[in-house]
Amino acid sequence: MTSQTVRIGRRAVRVADDQPTFWDRVAAGRWEPATLAALDRLIEPGVTFLDLGAWVGPTALYAAGVTRRVIAVEADPAALDQLHRNLAVNQDLAGRIEVVPRAVHALEGTVTMGARRKPGDSMSSVLLSAAERSWEAATITPGGLAAMIAGDERLIIKIDIEGAEYQLLPSLRPLLDHAEAVLISFHPAILAEAVVEPTERARRTRAALAAFAGFRAQALNATSARGASLAPLLVRWGLRRDLPGEDWLFTRR
């Protein structure tokens, strides 16, 4: 793919990756308009944007047009290659984006990641480690990421890690304690595929959502009520196997 200019939300960026169909959706305004609207409310010149699961960089590039600093965490080698290509054609933004080529995880070391179709398809996950297409990725802990952020930095977090959020959130306290807001995509279908036992899925879901105690929850899609409280969410996420993936915004009360 040769580089081209694409309009994403309120801004235009250059892209040079291998995702033309994706960027066609972006340019047509069909890619996560609620997420972009939430980012427009949250990102300001003094903010640090931590992008967990940066993929090829749509949200990192978007945030870099406004924020002082972006930390883009990505562990898929094919996505990282495409992300660096996109940064190379956005020199005005690249200086604000620090790429961390690791998987965020509770423990230091390595994890096995996999993808159903191919690396770089935006769906790679530690929950797909048994897939035919898999690889080892070095990890960075929430504490390691927190050490990269000064105490006076205003922090906004985006999490889109294809089901790994259920395992990660209970250990994310070093970052959540600092964050003003968290944009997160939940993937219950991937969790259901990886964890067959409903009771164990419910336990993991409750443990993940308990990390947001003290935050206010707002659904970013049309199927859920705005401003839902945390207690009903615990029941809802824990007991319904067929719940579709949803995007949520958690903000400090």
Description:
- Helix content is 33%, strand content 26%.
- It is an alpha/beta fold and 253 residues long.
- The chain has one domain: Vaccinia Virus protein VP39 (Rossmann fold, 3-Layer(aba) Sandwich), CATH 3.40.50.150.
- A seven-stranded mixed β-sheet has the order 5-4-3-9-10-12-11, covered by helices on one side. Strands 6-8-7 form a three-stranded mixed β-sheet.
- The radius of gyration is 17 Å and the shape is globular.
- Mean pLDDT is 89; it is low at 222-229 and 239-244.
Short overview:
The chain is an alpha/beta fold and 253 residues long.
CATH class categorisation: Alpha Beta
Mean pLDDT: 89
CATH-wise, what's the superfamily? Vaccinia Virus protein VP39
Tell me the span between the first and last alpha carbons. 44 Å
Work out the number of β strands. Answer: 12
Please estimate the helix content.
25-40%
Radius of gyration equals: 17 Å
The main pleated sheet reads as:
7 strands, mixed
CATH topology: Rossmann fold
Percentage of residues in strands: 25-35%
Count every helix, treating DSSP H or I runs of 4 or more residues as helices: 11
Form type: globular
Question: Can you tell me the CATH architecture?
Answer: 3-Layer(aba) Sandwich
Number of domains: 1
